[in-house]
């Protein structure tokens, strides 16, 4: 009887997780273009889906019985959902950098509730995602709601799709000429590759990493410079 009860509880939890992820996926499909432009005005007028997903996050504690991919997908979705909430709570605005609360910038405000605990966006990104999963593709998963960020994908991450989606988003980002300018002997690349350099050089150089995704083969001796970051809002 006890084993049957555990199975029932597990199946219910799995079903609930899938249902809630589907809600977030639907929100992204309806409010984010294929180019990553977010319709914040529409989200502000119709907040029910985001509120439902946030409510789920508040009550859900991911644990180590989940696969690495499921945990990673959960935390990236949580980061992006709470970034959307933060923007909407302060909308209209021109940039996430305009948000300040008690002297704290957006990423250091403790407001993201997951499983009864309160986190900052910085904690989710740096202490949980970067430290626990050690995957440089995380940087195209989490979204900072700004022009120079890797585009916000219009799909929710799941245990099954996360590796393929992150790989796709990294390829799109690296080859996006508005965010990276790549030739064989000269590359002007996103400041993300400078700020988080340690994440990208664990298995080689920055150029080694870029060549895994770049449509243009980069010379190992190519000149590297970093582009100015555009912090204007990634939407309307």
Structure description:
The chain has 236 residues and is mainly α. Helix content is 48%, strand content 8%. The protein has ten helices and seven strands. A three-stranded mixed sheet has the order 5-6-7. A two-stranded antiparallel sheet has the order 1-2. It has a two-stranded antiparallel ribbon with strand order 3-4. Helix 1 runs antiparallel to helix 3 (48-59), helix 3 (48-59) crosses helix 4 and helix 4 packs antiparallel against helix 5. The longest helix has 30 residues, at 2-31.
Structural class assignment: mainly alpha
Helical content stands at 40-55%
Q: Which spans of ≥5 residues are poorly predicted at pLDDT below 50?
A: 2-14
Residue share in β-strands: 5-15%
* Largest sheet, strands/sense/barrel: 3 strands, mixed
Mean pLDDT score, rounded? 93
Number of strands: 7
* SSE ordering: HHHHEEEEHHHEEHHHE
Number of helices: 10
């Amino acid at each position: 009887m006890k084993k049957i009860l555990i199975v029932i509880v597990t199946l219910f939890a799995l079903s609930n997780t899938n249902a809630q992820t589907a809600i977030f996926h639907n929100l992204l499909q309806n409010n984010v273009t294929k180019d990553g432009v977010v319709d914040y005005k529409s989200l502000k007028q119709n907040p029910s889906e985001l509120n439902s997903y946030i409510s789920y996050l508040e009550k859900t504690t991911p644990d180590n019985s989940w696969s690495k991919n499921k945990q990673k997908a959960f935390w990236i979705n949580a980061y992006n959902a709470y970034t959307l909430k933060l923007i909407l709570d302060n909308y209209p605005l021109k940039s996430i950098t305009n948000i300040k609360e008690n002297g704290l910038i957006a990423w250091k405000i403790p407001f993201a509730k997951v499983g009864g605990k309160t986190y900052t966006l910085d904690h989710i990104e740096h202490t949980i995602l970067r430290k626990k999963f050690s995957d440089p593709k995380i940087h195209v998963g989490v979204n900072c709601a700004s022009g120079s960020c890797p585009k916000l994908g219009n799909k929710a991450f799941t245990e099954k799709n996360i590796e393929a989606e992150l790989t796709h988003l990294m390829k799109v980002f690296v080859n996006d000429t508005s965010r990276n300018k790549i030739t064989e002997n000269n590359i002007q690349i996103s400041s993300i590759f400078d700020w988080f350099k340690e994440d990208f050089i664990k298995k080689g150089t920055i150029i080694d990493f870029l060549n895994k995704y770049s449509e243009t083969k980069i010379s190992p001796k190519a000149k590297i410079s970093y582009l100015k970051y555009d912090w204007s809002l990634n939407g309307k």
